[in-house]
Write a structure and sequence with these properties.
The complex is a heterodimer of chains A (411) and B (403).
Chain A: E1 5-10, E2 16-21, E3 28-34, H1 48-55, H2 65-74, E4 78-83, E5 88-94, H3 99-109, H4 116-134, H5 137-150, H6 163-168, H7 171-181, E6 187-193, H8 197-207, E7 228-234, E8 240-247, H9 256-267, H10 273-279, E9 286-293, E10 298-306, H11 311-328, H12 332-349, H13 353-367, H14 373-381, H15 385-393, E11 401-407
Parallel strand pairs in A: 2-6, 7-11
Antiparallel strand pairs in A: 1-2, 3-5, 3-6, 4-5, 8-10, 8-11, 9-10
Chain B: E1 2-3, E2 9-14, E3 21-27, H1 41-49, H2 58-67, E4 71-76, E5 81-87, H3 92-104, H4 110-126, H5 131-143, H6 156-161, H7 164-174, E6 181-186, H8 190-201, E7 221-225, E8 231-239, H9 247-258, H10 264-271, E9 278-286, E10 289-298, H11 300-316, H12 323-340, H13 344-358, H14 364-372, H15 376-385, E11 392-397
The chains are: A alpha+beta (411), B alpha+beta (403).
Amino acid sequence: MSVLTFREATLPNGLRVIAEINREAKSTALGYFVRTGSRDELAGEEGVSHFLEHMVFKGTERRSAWDVNREFDEMGAKYNAFTNEELTVFYGAVLPEFAPRLLDLLSDLMRPALREDEFETERKVILEEIALYRDRPHFVLYERAQEAYFGRHPLAKPVLGTTESIEAMTRAQMAAYHARRYVPNNMTLAFAGNLDWDEMLALAERMTRGWTRGAAPRNHPGFTPEPRRLRTPYDKASQAYAVFVAPGHAAAAEERYAARVLADVLGDPDNGRLFWRLVDPGLVETAMAYHHEYEELGTFLVYLQGDPAHEEEVSARVREELQRLEKRGVEAEELERAKLKTATSLVFAGETSLSRLFYLGMGYSYTGRYEALDTVRRWVMHLEPYHLGELLEARPFSRALEYWLVPADHG
Amino acid sequence: MHTLDNGLRVAVEPQPWNPGLSFTILVPVGATSDPEERLGAASMLETWLWKGAGPRGARAFADALDALGVRRQSGAGVEYTTFSASLLPEGFSAALELYADLLMRPHLPDDAFESVRALALQELAALEDQPPRKLLVRLRREAFASPHGQPVEGERETLERMTPEALRGEYRRRYGAGGSVLAVSGGVDPDEVLRIAEKHLGAWSGDAPSPPAVRLTVPHRFHIEQETEQVQIGLFYKDVPPGHYDFYASRLAVAVLSGGMSSRLFTEVREKRGLVYAVSASPGSVKGFGYLTAYAGTMPERAQATLEVMEEEIERLAQGVTREELDRAKVGVRADLVLSGESSRARAGALARDLFILDRARSLEEVEAEVMDVTLERLNAFLAGRPYRDPWIGSLGTVEVGP
């Protein structure tokens, strides 16, 4: 296997720069991980994080929107960006010879011009994106369940905002949000793959020299889940969609490895407990569980999709499985299988520089530490049934929110 | 590439640096070979195969794959069904033995049949909640007069009428080594792969029915009325088939049209006019035939304008592309090739598809050389001589787009 080296540095302006270097890799991936998202939006700013993510590609002092698109394509870059509740990430992968040029471009983009005419054009694109997701019931379900589960906690806010908030958004609001959140000490620049560390670090320093520090505070209010069952008819759904959301573990918590494997035992799509109780007998088309990690807390999510006629039966069976898991824990054999599958996945997660970049950047953004995929594998392979048992002692699934989105004629 | 005595073709691409391995088994069982009265059979069969094989029941079978750490994906498509697996090389022989059971010795048990049917019916119903996919399925159906237009998901009536006996008959008639493909990529030795393939799949018998010839309808418009937020728009154009002299020129033309964010469709439809969030064109092919589809989703009041810009941009290709556009398209294709070469799963999938479509596997180097070989003059001569025009046009939503 190739030799990996980890390097890290903090620039005078507070920007953290990290790299997992593999001189044999055929590509280089790099990205800015900005610790900002919908949870950091003030009243009236709903959706600004995501709208700004779009505006970042619409030009800077030095570049027009066309220049930006053209330059990415001249490098043949595979690039994109995404926004969630807590992070906004801009990334790209290129052949190693283009890495300095990609760094120059991405760094420049972090200081967007936010031109008024581009702002108006992009507002329409965002409204189209909101409309697109309204045609996708599983997304509507996720957004509503997130809102219901988190209540008054900032993680309840919709990432896309609402049609109303986007229609009312001003350029000045976006500029103020940018000034508050895109400060270097609130960002991580990460590299993975084939690169020259000294060259990249020097270039990053030069490109970001004018960036000034800021506070970028984030609220962590207390949160207590409120178990209940909710149900909404939706006129664009022909199937029934459901989630169970239960308290899990934070992105930096040691319990996260056990929590991920526990979710697999429950809801691996090929061989989890829910598969055999629900999909194998044909009650639902999809049954999955996963563990979602945030900064100070986490959630277990069970997702179901299928024939609305089976709603009661499915609901009862899921609750039965969750209770059984809480009462009896997991068996040694099923834990071994889930561990092995995770270990294999980690090998494949290491194949491409881009995939490595996500692991590296996300992990570091939350923990402030480098965690090699091999280290993750070791943690997972050392799990014993009692580690999972300890998580279950808190009876997380007894505090689950159950949310159903059903066709309008089943309401 | 190597062909076993029973007709199974095997391709191996070693990635010496890769600690993992992926393989894809492609069986030419898809919607194109579903009899008209049994639409959806290929898809149902794929689900049913997993309900026990060889000495193991369904659960023991899944457990055995898990014990090898196998990550798996499988599914039926228009022309074939694929079974893909990713795992560590030391488990390859044991995993292939399990897949040999699945393909050659499935139980296809009566008591699982009703749940297989229930899943198929739910999959079909779920299409109603995925407007873009629903439109593209219908677009294919409208454009092809041959079985290439048949829906992979089947139809309510055909799924409801299916019997275990009929589906077992489909298995016997269509699953076999002849026409099937095993492609392997990753940290493996090709000779070792061949030895293992021979050992576990060498006794697989049977031949797949040969694929039907492509026939098209006359280009026309259609509309599906549905209460959606966005109107879905789809276009279907004839294109050159894989293996054709102009194949790589056509691929570069699509890259100019819809490769990166400086491509024509993205620039004109989204960046300049803000008409959509999603707009794209993608090349497609079935054995012996190539096509181009374009897609956009937009709110009803902007649907007509969106369609007009899309059609105009696609027709404008006939006037040629610039040197800068071609250069960007080439560097984009080159980067895609290098990046896909990092992934064993992507390579195994591409090799398997090559063997099915072209009857040979292309290396990344060969594709790159062919792409780089297309000059501006050659591309523009192709575009002028074979313009993209006269498409099939479909819409789904609350308003119909029209001329």
